[in-house]
Amino acid sequence: MSESTVTSANDGSTATPEPTSATGVCASEPWAWTATEALAAFRARDLSPVDYLDALTVRIAEREPDVNAVTEIVEEARTHAVDAEKIYTSSSPETLAEVLAVQPLLGLPVLAKEKHALAAHTLSQGMVHLRDEVADEDSTIISRIRAAGGYVHARVTSPEFSCATFTHSPLWGVTRNPWNLELSPGGSSGGSGAGLAAGYGPLATASDIAGSTRLPAAFTGTVGYKAPYGRIPGAAPLALDWYRGDGPMARTVADTALLARVLVGISPSDHMTVPSPDFLTGFDASSDGVVEALAGRRIALCVRLGDFPVAPDIERNTRAVADLLASVGAVVEEIELPWTVERIFDTAFTHFGNYLAPLMRQATAGHEDTLAPYTLRFMEVAEAAAAKRGLAEGLAMEARMQADLAEAMAGFDVLLAPTSAVAALQADGAYLDGLTVGQRSLEHYWQGHMTVPFNIANRVPVVNVPSGMADCGIPTGLQIVGHPFADRNAFEVAAAVEQLQPWTGLAPG
After folding, report:
1. Structural domain boundaries of the chain?
2. Model's pTM, two decimal places?
3. Fold adopted by 17-263
4. If we measure between CA atoms, which residue out of 137, 238, 134, 143 comes closest to residue 188?
5. 21 partner at 20 to 30 Å CA-CA among 200, 241, 378, 487?
6. Tens digit of pLDDT for each residue in 472-509?
7. Is the per-residue pLDDT at 23 higher than 50?
């Protein structure tokens, strides 16, 4: 992928090359620029942060409500853009460099998933009975974005309680995939994925308890990072759930890494967080050396993660990426894992039934008649699993799966696997009766996705990158899985895939 960089002109001034899309085609409209390109233009004074915000605001007005990804335009965003503009226009190059060392997102707008608390704004998580709930303070990741010079300009949709892999709710209606409005952008961070693909912003916040970052990234042709548990702080009490984690989404690997660097690290409000002082230090997704460094690296390929019914177009795209990596010197070896869809599902829903479902029941007590059918179904299925197995048995099941993954990845740098076995879900589907994939009927639609094993193996980093186009006309995704806390390996292979197989990052239209 061709990234914009700041170069020195002959007269010693700072110049900005023409911003390009991931395909190398000039993207003349500022709303189409990546965060990296926008920052370069800010520094060169070729683009005002205020004009950039205005361009994004116009873009949102053009595409909504067809996409229906935005819950709120944040009015105070303009004040933040004006403040950033003053710094860029009034600072010497030396002073600006000092400021950007502390505020690497200076002037950048961010799409925020509504569940990430923004002080004095709603915090409904898509539930009708909480539509008037207001946050007292920013969530930690929002406060870190602000401290880094960024700001939230729009808030985006999720399903109720972030408990679905599609995005619709009685409160906000149906969010649609900009690539194909009949299809879903995935969930639960569907508004983030749809907003990125539609050109509403360069960066977005997301969360992931079973694939809620990676699935929207896969379905919208964007990049999503599921951090190891503890890498990025969350909000109590769900921060104590070892499956979950907040994180970044963007249209490029470089931009995803940019936001990730801001979010990681210990927070006093989340005792599960771990130190991350050297996180991705010196990582450059646009470097020529990213591809060269693949020579000799050992990469495991697992197309089915046991017995997932992977669609032919997804398998085709996954193998094509593996072949590309092998063509530049990576040692790619196909492996198998001793898992079944049913075993993975039973393990995960034993966890959800013992931990998440009771919290959901508490939060929705007395308001069941306002909930979406998929929310009620999730709680029922999770509670049924917990009735069969207690927490201790669930932990033993998780430990066996973690051991299986560690054994399979021994001797490899990363593992490649599809993000979803199915290429798409209908935008307004609820899938209460499960899902049929080819000739196989799945009891629960979550069994069509391949993300949950890496929430069970909760310390592994995963970067989703696009792997190609599905036959239905939307992107497909590839998970790049690292060893526990080996985030850099996953990001480096992701950057190499991006360079070897560039993608647009934006949906047509």
Report:
1. 17-263
2. 0.95
3. Amidase signature (AS) enzymes (3.90.1300)
4. 238
5. 487
6. 999 999 999 999 999 999 999 999 999 999 998 899 97
7. no
